[in-house]
């Protein structure tokens, strides 16, 4: 018998009807002769509602108490999903994070899982039960409830699958799988049957958010196969796995596997920073301490012992960034700063580009030919990202998708 | 330093404003130099809302999953109360039932506490923290969350006070204390400064619901002093304690300490039950298995090898009772059954009546003189209860309050 871990997000369990739909899916997997562990998030808006409740009490809640509060969300959804499965005749046990054996490093609101002690889960499986586990949460060494932060439930599912040596971890989403580009923008985009961990990581980080990067990193580390698929249909989704086990033809064929874009971007620049050791470190430490996740960083050359720096982050951090940069300008001091949230990030991703020089050059050329100005550039071994005017996003994505021969009609033989 | 355990019910923490009022009260107790452990229930309607949520999934939820679901209610209120206390500058730690060390017998939905392992609570107290504990819940030997059922939070508070050897357990309610009768009905009713455990038990069981009987039983067993007081003012409430330590004069003076009434009563009768061994046992076993808490039971004499039985229960059980009795009539068989939910229970309570014969006779005489028909009678060593027509409730309570010389003006010397 195979062990399958299935993960359903908050929108999949947002109401009774959807909970039953999830239960049906889980039950079918069980009926097919599998041992099933289901990891679920809090129902729909529950987390937001709880945050609103806390904000009536304090504008600065203790992280420990927020974790205590928010972890009730998943506890509610596991009990309701368990009830739905029982109503359909299955034997089930729901387990909170601490019951399921998630041991964390104890950092409130953004814990990392240290290890899973899965004896309770294994016992329930052994009794023939479907096990419904609360995602997003675990227990610290001190016995406190801690949450895993953004992307926590995906990570919970992957970690449990690893601990149970599951055959596959199925991540159910509202899309069919991972596409070569957003199908709403690029009509000829197509669903990739397979993608490597690294490519998935870059696609995820680039705004094609079907899987949280943390969970992909973890799966990669333990070589766990992920299956990203739709909770609305039975189509095969996208398998995320090691490059070595992927279809060889495909790897050869595809220099670039996809074009991703992200409009949730703010670009910040700080000008006239003293060109002394530690200046950059001080600025980015301040940003980190304010909880700002900096994405791309570009430092231009020095002029008159001064330098300019730019970086990007998510738009909701705009105010926090402003506070840090105005502090830097005043106290470092630097000359000035500027923020621009009318930009977008467009990225091409592909493991194949490691061995193929000239991909970056081609990206710049395609954008230039389409009169799209590049504001920032950032590259890794398997992706190239450009910040462009937000209004140019669609044009850029379509042009790159075509230029790298990703359009469905040019790829029939690979897709088949 | 004294350890004080304070218990606040769901209506006391129903919204942010009330949570701050509770926090103020708790903070004052801490500021006065006490070590404070606060036990709270779920906010206002949370439990009902969660039950409604479950009922969208199933009409017959698993008890284990209901406990999983409902226990989130208190977990939310402890985190919010902790946040409020922190907002006011106090050091606080909230603890769920399992974190606070409540170990139960594992019976879902109506667990009994087996023992409390208070090391975590003591550690937090040792750090100078106010400890906010989730009432109503604990953990079974198997590591499952179980709830304590009706009256659970009072019992949680009392049990914690016993485990911590607290000096007093303060139960905050929306009334000032325990009155000789419901002050809304009897203008001359007065608040008792002291009451014995046994009297409190009878008063509580008789509908003067300021304290759950289970919690009083537990306090009695460990001789823990309870203080029933208002969360709206600073008046001294009613102290519940051992008879031996009570004001001697008062004990002598008061044959009857109070008159209680309860209109949440349905009277059921079953007629023509075969007069064979085991018939009563079978009927009451069936009722118990249906979860019906039978209160008074009266069996009249035998006629033609048949007997009639009557009993009372809470009105919300009417449908379940009907189902059981119609089953009994059909299958035992018995002749017929009848239900009446236009009745009320009126009780006189007092430890003094043990040594004073004639109290029952006086009760019947008073009611008869007021043309109040007695439908059922039930007595214990320290209380006499009569079922009467619901419309006669107020008249009965007032007449008994006066007849037993409880009216405030006749008692000035005792009250002073």
Description:
The structure is a homodimer of 416-residue chains. Chain A has 416 residues and is of the alpha/beta class. Chain A folds into two domains: 171 residues, Carbamate kinase; 156 residues, VC0802-like, CATH 3.30.2130. The first copy, chain A, contains 14 helices and 18 strands. In chain A, strands 3-6-2-1-9-11-12-10 form an eight-stranded mixed sheet, sandwiched between helices. A six-stranded antiparallel sheet of chain A has the order 14-15-13-16-18-17. In chain A, strands 4-5 form a two-stranded antiparallel ribbon. In chain A, a hairpin with a 2-residue loop joins strand 14 and strand 15. Chains A and B meet through helix 1, helix 2 and helix 3 of A and helix 1, helix 2, helix 3 and strand 3 of B.
């Amino acid at each position: 018998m195979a062990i399958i871990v299935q993960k359903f997000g908050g929108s999949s369990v947002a109401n009774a009807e959807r909970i039953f739909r999830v239960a049906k899916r889980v039950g079918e997997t069980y009926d097919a002769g599998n041992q099933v562990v289901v990891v679920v998030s809090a129902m729909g808006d529950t987390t937001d509602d709880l945050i609103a409740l806390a904000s009536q009490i304090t504008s600065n809640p203790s992280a420990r108490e927020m974790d205590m509060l928010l972890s009730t969300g998943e506890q509610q959804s596991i009990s309701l999903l368990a009830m739905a499965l029982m109503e359909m005749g299955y034997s089930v046990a729901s387990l909170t994070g601490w019951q399921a054996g998630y041991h964390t490093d104890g950092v409130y609101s953004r814990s990392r899982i240290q290890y899973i002690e899965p004896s309770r889960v294994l016992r329930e499986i052994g009794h023939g039960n479907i096990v419904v586990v609360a995602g997003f949460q675990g227990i610290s060494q001190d016995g406190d409830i801690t949450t895993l932060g953004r992307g926590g439930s995906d990570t919970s599912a992957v970690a449990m699958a690893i601990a149970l040596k599951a055959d596959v971890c199925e991540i159910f989403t509202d899309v069919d799988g991972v596409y070569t580009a957003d199908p709403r923008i690029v009509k000829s985009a197509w669903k990739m049957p397979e993608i490597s961990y690294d490519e998935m990581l870059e696609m995820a980080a680039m705004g094609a958010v079907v899987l949280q990067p943390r969970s992909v990193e973890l799966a990669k580390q333990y070589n766990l196969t992920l299956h990203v698929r739709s909770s609305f249909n039975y189509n095969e989704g996208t398998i995320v796995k090691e490059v070595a086990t992927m279809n060889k033809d495909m790897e050869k064929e595809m220099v670039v596997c996809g074009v991703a874009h992200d409009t949730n971007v703010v670009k910040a620049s700080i000008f006239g920073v003293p060109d002394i050791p530690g200046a950059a470190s001080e600025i980015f430490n301040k940003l980190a301490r304010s909880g700002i996740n900096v994405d791309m960083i570009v430092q231009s050359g020095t002029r008159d012992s001064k330098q300019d720096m730019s970086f990007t982050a998510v738009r909701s951090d705009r105010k926090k960034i402003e506070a840090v940069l105005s502090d830097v300008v005043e106290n470092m001091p630097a000359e000035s700063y500027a923020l621009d949230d009318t930009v977008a990030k467009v990225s091409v991703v592909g493991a194949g580009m490691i061995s193929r020089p000239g991909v970056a050059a081609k990206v710049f050329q395609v954008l230039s030919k389409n009169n799209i100005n590049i504001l920032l550039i950032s590259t890794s071994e398997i992706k190239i990202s450009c910040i462009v005017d937000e209004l140019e996003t669609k044009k850029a994505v379509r042009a790159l998708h075509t230029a790298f021969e990703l359009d469905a009609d040019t790829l029939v033989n690979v897709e088949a």
